[in-house]
Amino acid sequence: MNRSVYITKLASYYPNEPVANDDIEKFLGLINDQPSKARPLILRNNQIKKRFYSFDREGKTTHTNTNLTRLAIEKLFDDKFKQQDMQLLSCGTTTPDQMLPPHAAMVHGEMGGHPVEINTAAGSCSAGIQALKFGYLSVLSGNTTNAVCTGSDRFSKWMQAKFFKEEAEKVSMLEGGDGMIAFEKDFLRFMLSDGAAAVLLEDKPNPDKLSLRIDWIEQKSYAHELPACMYYGAVKDENGNFIGWNDLEQQQWAGESAFALKQDTKLLGEFIVKKGGEFMKELVTKHNIDVENLTYFLPHLSSQYFASRIAKELEVLNIDIPSSKWFTNLTWVGNVGAASPLLMLEELFNSGRMKKGDTIWMMIPESARFNYGYVMLTVV
């Protein structure tokens, strides 16, 4: 099979004006009317300066996840590629607006237009890449000649103080303290952001401007070895057993913040870099990657804290990628989950910095239950 798949256009959408660090709790609210004790430490480690929220200062919603995704997709359409030309819509997200219908169906419904094949990828940070791979395989196989793939997330509403109110009161009564919510939850509150990225895949490159040829997309899960690390719609009991929302009593949903996004930071720190490095080393051998001649390395970082740890792991693995080749936009857009890898790529692609022959290696770690994605691209 002598076929290739090309990224011919990328677009992004961020809601409202960026929110600076000093304004975070003005938007999200104070838990138990107390500023977070962990906030200064978390912000110092993640080095995020700005993020985007899909609601205003009064807490009124301005965008749904479906809205964000549609608005990013619409930027792909022009005289050369119209909405009616789209054959496949593949959408990845962590934070759908509802459990059912699936996210891609809601996006298609809001867009209107004509019948298309749809696919929804559910997960956390790698969901956007899973959506991209579905589109890539469709075009590669000849099932379609194009695909629109997206990554999007709207975490901000989940991070509002009102969703932690009952748990904070419960902790305060039990411990006689200030009702401080666990560091694992604050860790995410001051990191996450909202936005969407959209990618157009076609079976031919742009005739008059640069495109990205997808050389390969590889993914691997380590869920068989490791427990859940980031989760929502569930809790862990005192023995670490995982209990889904439908096995909880209704009062536990609010009382234990079952639907709040949670992160086991100890588990994260112990395994997220290590397992990603194992897979990376395998791929260097499998694809005979010339690491020295890579042009760009795009690691998805949930926090800048992990950059130095990844660099040390690469040194141990003898994979030399100097910091001058790294490209991230975490500091000025925040961690947008499933959208982040594609938002990085979109910014680089539209920056005017790339030239034919450049190579781009993307790394997407997902801590939910340790799934990893890697993408190799060549500028053509």
CATH topology of the largest domain: Peroxisomal Thiolase, Chain A, domain 1
Instruction: Quickly give the CATH architecture of the largest domain.
Output: 3-Layer(aba) Sandwich
| Mean pLDDT rating | 93
Helicity range? 25-40%
Write down how many β-strands occur, each being a DSSP E stretch of 2 or more residues: 15
User: What spatial order of strands do you see in the largest sheet?
Assistant: 5-4-6-7-1-8-15-14-13
CATH class of the largest domain: Alpha Beta
N-to-C SSE string, H for helix and E for strand = EEHHEHEHEHEHHEEEEEHEHEHHHEE
- Could you describe the largest sheet, including whether it forms a barrel? 9 strands, mixed
How far is it from the N-terminal to the C-terminal residue, by CA?
20 Å
Number of helices: 12
Rg, alpha carbons: 21 Å
InterPro entries: ACP_syn_III_C (IPR013747), Thiolase-like (IPR016039)
Protein name: Beta-ketoacyl-ACP synthase III
Domain Beta-ketoacyl-[acyl-carrier-protein] synthase III C-terminal: 286-362
Keywords: Acyltransferase, Transferase
Q: What does this 3D model show about the protein?
A:
The protein is built from twelve helices and 15 strands. The chain has 380 residues and is an alpha+beta fold. It folds into two domains: 202 residues, 3-Layer(aba) Sandwich (Peroxisomal Thiolase, Chain A, domain 1); 165 residues, Thiolase/Chalcone synthase (Peroxisomal Thiolase, Chain A, domain 1, 3-Layer(aba) Sandwich). The protein has a nine-stranded mixed sheet with strand order 5-4-6-7-1-8-15-14-13, sandwiched between helices. The chain is globular. The two termini are 20 Å apart. About 2% of the residues have low confidence. Pfam families: ACP_syn_III_C (PF08541). Keywords: Acyltransferase, Transferase.
